[in-house]
Amino acid sequence: MARRLKAAAGKRGPPAKRGPPAALLGPPSSEDEADEAPEQVSFGVAKEAAETQRKLVGEAARRHRELLKEKRRRRQELFAEQKKRKLLPEAVLQELTAAPPAGTDGQTAAATPGKCHGGDAPKQRKGKIQRQGQAQRRVKKDKQRKRGARSKGNYTAVCLKEHGLTGLHQQLAKDFLNTHLYGPDTNRVQANEFFSLENKKNPVKKAAVQFVDKSWGQEKKQRAARFKKRWLATQMKNRV
Amino acid sequence: MGEFEVHRVRFFGLVPAGVRCLACQPRGARLALARTDGAVEIYNCSANYFQEKVIPGHETRSVEALCWAAGERLFGAGLSGDITEYDLAGLRVARSLHGSGGPIWSMAANSSGTQLAVGCEDGSVKLFQVIPGGIQFERNLDRRKGRILCLSWHPSGTHIAAGSIDIFRVLDVSSGQTVQRVMVNYHVQKVKRECVVWSIAFLSSGTVVTSDSFGRVQFWDWERGTLQESHTVSTSSALSLAVSEKEDSIIVGTSTGATYQFQLLPVRMGSLEKRWVRTKPFQHHTHDVRAVAHSSTALISGGLDAQLVIRPLMEKVQKKSYDAALRKFTFPHRRLVSCARKARLLLFQFSQHLELWRLGSTDETGKDGEVLPLRRMPEHLVQLKSKGPEHIYCSCVSPCGSWVAYSTASRFHLYRVQHKGDSVSIKKVPKVPKLLLPAYQLQFSANSSSLFVASSRGSVHVLQLLEPGGCRHLHTLRPPSESPEAVYLLAASADGHWLAAVGGDWMIHIYNLKCSKHHCTVPTYSCAVTALAVHPLTNNLVIAYSDQQLFEFSIPEKQYTAWSRTVQSCGLHTVWLERDSPITHITFNPKNPSHILLHDTYMFCVLDKSLPLPDNSALLMNQSTLKQLPETARQRQLHAFKICKKFQPLLFADLLDEKCLVMVERPIMDIKTQLPLPVQQKKFGT
Question: Of A182, A185, A210, which is closest to B677 when you measure between CB atoms?
């Protein structure tokens, strides 16, 4: 059987690489065993067989791709859903963007002591996502508070300084300083190299300033110290 | 001198912050200095450059510019965008105003001190008026793109020169418009990098001096917008420049640590035409020199290697005395280490945490100069991190080692330390009495039963410490005359009877603790007090002043002692008076009542009052010569000052018991290897 299969494969040539020839796709029981010569299949039939084979494989690949696409789409939807879930329903937000009455303002301020960030929640809808998130959290807290009874009475509402933008500006400024003072063009050198030059140029040569770096084998030393402590403790316990 | 076993401590890992800004008080004798961690220090130039005031920093505070305005008021501005006024009497931030232009890079006051100009990140120059209660925003001058890195007023106050990246602008103050815009970088061959104008100065002749990141100092005619002179002083950036008041001398600081002096000199002898010439180069620093100042007699530079260098100009100094010597300050002029003698503990004060160490011990003895092997290593017992962004003002450990206290600008903490065998447990004392903070100095009494807290307006609070861990405010001691200055030094007597307190007005008040009343005031002296201590047996107050004078005042008799009068009439040795650093700690040996032990950064001295005082012809540091002399010759040459210079730089020295000394050193190289990277200096043959 194996010999026949091999011969059949050889006869067919390249199209047969795709898969077993059409003749073999059929039920093997139809063929007689042993003595019969291999079946004579015409070129056209073989071509058709090859075509169907290719189509099948193509279909399989397409199905696989579709499957992946489907998966990806489902994932995106899930993310969008989660994102939407984080935000409050549009209706509530629209309500808030419209002129909030003084009463609600006072309530939101009072209900979130220390969480106020120097701006109104509605205005920050256009701002960064974190600010938005914080604003939503603030309003959510407010809603929760409204539902339950006010448990604590003694608190003071404080308005903290706006940190978001100033921190960014400060970081940019510090980065500017760093690039211009310690950036690639500035020809800086390690402290060891800088200070050891004298030691090496002296008539009496001395070792470099940081000849031994204390950070070598740091972890090993720490592990050894911990082991020593534990061992000593057990020794004391055993002795006692 | 006696034989002592010396605990040589080098595990205090203090790394002082680099110097960022310097400002000379225009018509005064004070120098303000700001460090990279936000700390502000005031040095008194007439009191031998003593660091008389320190305002500790803050984690979020960065000071990029410092200036004096309206005489005595000090303003600072930084990358947080705030303009802060410092309360120099109360040693804290008085008020701060947010200049809404983003981070502030530069600030300058006009010559009359009535207006402040502030250069911001967004390219605007804002004008503020200095009013009695603070500052008030006046208006914005013309805003262009590009951060304003440096500012300078014209001495007449009509124009401001503002340096930016690749350009500098001249603005007219009255109209607010930019009247000239000059590009700085068209002379450089490969203009791949941008040219940052790091500092600028406006001279009254109409010349604008700029220093930029290509290491050039350039002189411009601002009206025509032309370059008059260009000097390349360095291959790395020229970071700072300062002009003298007479406008004939400029000091420039560079990234390599070198500073240069430019002088306006006539072209030929007797010629009227003058040119700026680079005269003197100095290499005092190893790291970037980001701050320079020019006083009337000296060139002052501060680098990121935390050193402040004052170089007097020879031609300005009247006589060839110690005034003409180079002064270098690296370490603070106050104690950062406290010692619990009986428990052999050391408390190290860092800017944001404290470390408690136990000293090691040895069983061996040896000869002079021998290093003894340790039987027990020094142990790091506790590390206390200060909560919050504020830096620590002061800290102290009690002599018995069971109480630790420290104070920041708005909090005061007291801890109880329990010693259980070898280990230590620390517990915070919960209800601390509400005092007006900050505490400027803390001192435990000798029997560890009370804590003295130095406060503002010359007052000292006395807190009683209760077992097992509590604290109660007993009373507040106030001086007879009201003073706005805060107390910065305290000394308590060993018997718990007397307390001496020194305020910022340099008056020493002595209080009787038994009846909680003011006892007397030490006669005023023209200099700041750097250290004081009360003798355990005789109750004499030993005072060290910043001009290196020593006095001994008898508290029960309310007058100077006879020995002190002898010292004053004979005068101290010139080598003693010409020391660079002030004495920061005085202590006594209970077994030898005539001994006084004192130290400064570079020497440790045992003063024996029973021996004769040296006159100027004798050698002051004669310990090494005395060792080699035979006994009879030694007796003839002995004098009171026994000085040891083996341990330096010394941060702290104390006597643990009659045979044991502890010396806390901080080698300068250990600091320098932990600083930001220096610029490579190409040396021939390497």
Answer: A182
